Amino acid sequence: MGQIVSVDVKHSLGAKEAKRRVQAGIDAIRDKYTAQLTALRIDWDDLRADVTVTAMGHTIKGAMEFFPEFVRISLELPWIMAMIAGRAKQLMTKHAGDMLRLPPPRE
Questions:
Q1: CATH classification of 3-95, choosing from 3.30.530.20, 3.40.50.1110, 3.90.550.10, 3.30.70.360?
Q2: Alpha-carbon distance 65 to 8, whole Å?
Q3: For 71, which DSSP code?
Q4: pLDDT in tens, 59-85
Q5: Residue 12 carries which DSSP code?
Q6: What is the pLDDT along the chain (107 residues), one digit of tens a residue?
Q7: 52, 60 contact by CB (below 8 A)
Q8: Which among 29, 74, 75, 35 is positioned nearest to 55, based on CA atoms?
Q9: Which end of the chain has fewer CB atoms surrounding its CB within 10 Å, N or C?
Q10: What's the rounded Cα separation, in Å, for the pair 57 and 74?
């Protein structure tokens, strides 16, 4: 069994706008890392997303939940990757923060 790592990334956008910005950021990541990703599946259900990523022979499952003041990201790292849980938390926080700082939609 793997290790579950979770982070809460604060914002002041409201849940729906945070979700919109993260969706846009995920699309950009998908385009940028197409060669490294074997599979990326995201099942959206209102303000929650279940995520499955397969890369370099490992599958990582997780979820994102969007709240008015923070986004909670949880990933289950395979046992072989559990030793990098601290680094995974740093990356999750950084990338989610970057996505939340994306510009608002043009009117």
A1: 3.30.530.20
A2: 9
A3: E
A4: 889 999 999 999 999 999 877 776 777
A5: S
A6: 678 889 999 999 999 999 999 998 888 878 777 777 778 899 999 999 999 988 778 888 999 999 999 999 999 987 777 677 777 788 888 888 888 887 766 65
A7: yes
A8: 35
A9: C
A10: 20
